[in-house]
Amino acid sequence: MLGIALRAAGFDSILCVDGEDALARLEDGLLPDLVLMDVRMPRMGGVELARRIREDRRWDLIPLVAMSAYSDDLQEHEIKAAGADAFLPKPFTISDLRSMLSSLLPRDRRPS
Q1: Quick check: 54 and 48 in contact, CB under 8 A?
Q2: Can you spell out the DSSP letters for 76-101?
Q3: Candidate CATH numbers 1.10.260.30, 3.30.460.40, 3.40.50.2300, 1.10.3470.10; the one for domain 2-101
Q4: pLDDT tens digits for 46-60?
Q5: Kind of pairing, strands 86-89 and 35-38?
Q6: Contact assessment for residue 9 and residue 111, using Cβ atoms and an 8 Å cutoff
């Protein structure tokens, strides 16, 4: 569903099954314009993924956006403390998604 929402918002996406898959792809050389992750994922959740991404200088400039259906202040604080640049509570609209992601991308990397 997220892939469909991203395409509808004008973004190309590479979907990963969980945090371990995302980290493995980064370690294999993938350099995305932005990482959008769920806070709660199997094997490696968003907090751990954000922390691991921020520990590696190769990925310093990649914006991290975390989303969650469990949107409380504590969870938002925890994910931002781990290195996320933004938090997007679920449910959200395609317009919300587009605005959030576009605000974190350089102008030349935003969908038209």
Answers
A1: no
A2: HHHHHHTT-SEEEESS--HHHHHHHH
A3: 3.40.50.2300
A4: 999 999 999 999 999
A5: unpaired
A6: yes
Confidence of residue 33 (pLDDT cuts 50, 70, 90): very high
pTM over 0.85: yes
Q: Cite the beta strand spans of 1-112 per DSSP E.
A: 35-38, 64-68, 86-89
State pLDDT tens for residues 37-89: 999 999 999 999 999 999 999 999 999 999 998 877 888 999 999 999 999 99
CB 45 within 8 A of CB 39: yes
Two structure tokens written together for 45: 């959740």
Q: How many residues does the chain have?
A: 112
Q: How many CB atoms lie within 10 A of CB 5?
A: 16
The token duo for 30 is: 């993938």
